[in-house]
Amino acid sequence: MIIDCHGHYTTAPKELQAFRNAQIDGNDNPGPLNISDDQIAETIRNGQLKMQQDRGSDLTIFSPRAAGMGHHIGTAKTSEIWSTLCNDLIHRVVKLFPKNFIGVCQLPQSPGVAPANCIKELERCVKELGFVGCNLNPDPSGGKWIDPPMTDKKWWYPIYEKMVELDVPAMVHVSMSCNPNFHTTGAHYINGDTTAFMQFIMSDIFKDFPTLKFIIPHGGGAVPYHWGRYRGLAQDQKRAPFSELVLKNVFFDTCVYHQPGIDLLTKVIPIDNILFASEMIGAVRGIDPETGHHFDDTKRYVDKAPISAADKQKIFEANARKVYPRLTAQLAKQG
Amino acid sequence: MIIDCHGHYTTAPKELQAFRNAQIDGNDNPGPLNISDDQIAETIRNGQLKMQQDRGSDLTIFSPRAAGMGHHIGTAKTSEIWSTLCNDLIHRVVKLFPKNFIGVCQLPQSPGVAPANCIKELERCVKELGFVGCNLNPDPSGGKWIDPPMTDKKWWYPIYEKMVELDVPAMVHVSMSCNPNFHTTGAHYINGDTTAFMQFIMSDIFKDFPTLKFIIPHGGGAVPYHWGRYRGLAQDQKRAPFSELVLKNVFFDTCVYHQPGIDLLTKVIPIDNILFASEMIGAVRGIDPETGHHFDDTKRYVDKAPISAADKQKIFEANARKVYPRLTAQLAKQG
User: Fold this and answer.
1) Could you tell me which chain B residue has the CA closest to the CA of A282?
2) Contact B224, B242 (CB under 8 A)
3) Are A271 and A231 within 8 A, CB to CB?
4) Shortest Cα distance from B28 to chain A (angstroms)?
5) Closest approach of chain B CAs to the CA of A269, in angstroms?
6) pLDDT tens digits, residue range B69-93?
7) C-alpha neighbours within 13 Å on the C-beta side of residue A70
8) Distance linking the first and last C-alpha atoms of chain B
9) Closest residue to B225, CB basis, from A179, A183, A219
């Protein structure tokens, strides 16, 4: 089985954005969202499911559109209504296509509000909707970076306690940038990944939570390319070796959109810490003129990486089953 | 000749930091800086010059300590006094060791103040001190990113006009982070690099200034590792191919502290766009236990990269002479 751990519902029917636009215009709760199962099925069949089939993956760990989370918009209440709505929509996708999708939730974060406010929605999504993880935004301010770092005990630890209790990992994923310096998918996403990793290696977060798990998407931001820099920075600060410090807890996905990048990732990062992902129908939708294939068809790159078949199986499936401990049982439940 | 295009005076005598501490305490101009030529010579002989000799490079393009620029501290006046002082110190290093060092200046940027205020100091450094380039901080706020992007015409274009007139490039280099989310050398530096590149490819800055040149340090941040992503993002936005859009104007240095990173850089980025650099006695000072050599001894990685001798000569020397058009004449002048 080939598990793509990073997919968003980027193709949702236009009614969803209409609802959101009303929120942006100041109406926190603009009434029920009228989207039929047929509409959902159509967007998935013509979108993510078709891509799965075309490219040869089997299951996508699926969450609401990342740029659409927009935690900086409105208040915590706005964010709560929006997150509930988006998560329910993911749940409907999973119910319609239970063999092909499994849910991950967005959280009702809001700048200036400690993420403990997200515990209720996380519990609901895991316990009631069968979700296996969450997306956690290290910067709910959308590029202003005004809240405390992810290693701040008072601010972040309550949500980590709940994650550990529920045995679900978080993908560290920023949302839309409202800072004109940061292009959302070209700068803010990658910077968020790099920033989080650096926070982790300078903290004792994984001493405090030995089973807490994070996936850093987009191939870990800049981290694998600068792996020597990070090892050296940690060593200069007398931190433990990475094997102890982060590698039981931090994982990188394969959303790197060219062969040399994937080759570096699989060479530098231990295979056990790499999870297959494409974020398809996402940031980059075109065809690479150098290959004739979609930039985000990352399975091709992993297939061609100079690593063993056993290593590829780990990247494609086994690692995801370990990092998302609820995945196997939930899949069985989904039948 | 082997030219290291990225060195900072990180070993300056302690009197310099005492001056700065007084500034930080609120005294903009705490009197003359008393540092003798002997003191300077000693720090260089035991520091950067020794490293040049040990590692086999010949010339360092040398500027004040990047983290020390601290543009967010005090006012534009504070920054002006501090920049003048730091640049004068670089000039003294160059006068003492004219065969081994050539100057690049820091600029008196200040958050909320358009960089046109830096024109005077740039002119002084180039025309009077013989400097061949400048460091330009894309975020003088130190990690708050509150000023306009580098592509904002009203804000940034006046300093670009002066750079073009003087025929000097800028290294895009942030300074100390005062945002607790961003570790200075592990996140803010790399994010600054990535952010600037993304700003460039979404703008017409190089149509407006066909001869303007930037060096993006630290191996271009995350950019080469995500080269497919950047090509794809630009293509989706119907931007011109990179050969037209940025590659006549944007160059990456080799401050990537492990062999696989340098191998990726030299594979993905055209050789004409890569400049040798180490940023030695900088962010990472230890020895890599995997190699037994300093992480920042980047010459070893370039030596071992699977590229031709002619390509290495470009990286080590020829490209720097092109990107810093004043370098060859200034070196002759320095004798």
Assistant:
1) B233
2) no
3) no
4) 28
5) 11
6) 999 999 999 999 999 999 999 999 9
7) 15
8) 15
9) A219
From the CB of residue A89, how many other CB atoms can be counted at a distance below 10 Å?
Answer: 18
Residue A208 CB partners (closer than 8 Å, separation 6+):
A153, A157, A160
Alpha helices (runs of H) in chain A, residue ranges in sequence order: 14-24, 37-46, 48-55, 66-69, 76-96, 119-123, 153-166, 189-201, 205-208, 227-236, 242-245, 259-268, 298-304, 309-313, 319-323, 327-334
- What pTM was computed for the model? 0.98
- In three-state secondary structure terms, A322 is helix
CB neighbour class for A87 (10 Å; exposed up to 12, middle 13-18, buried from 19): buried
- Domains of chain B, start order: 3-11+49-334 (3.20.20.140)
* Tens of pLDDT, residues B230-257: 999 999 999 999 999 999 999 999 999 9
Q: Catalytic: B279?
A: yes
Residue with tokens 């993880």: A133
> Which residue in chain B is spatially nearest to A264 when comparing CA positions?
B260
Measure Cα distances from A138 to A212, A288, B287 in Å. 16, 31, 32
pLDDT digits (tens, 9 = 90+) for A181-236: 999 999 999 999 999 999 999 999 999 999 999 999 999 999 999 999 999 999 99
In this structure, the strands spanning B59-64 and B101-103 are: parallel
Residue B277 C-beta-side C-alpha neighbours within 13 Å: 28
Continuous segment of H or E residues that includes residue B102: strand B101-103
Distance (Å, rounded) from C-alpha A326 to C-alpha A166?
9
| Cα gap B314→B170, rounded to integer Å | 19
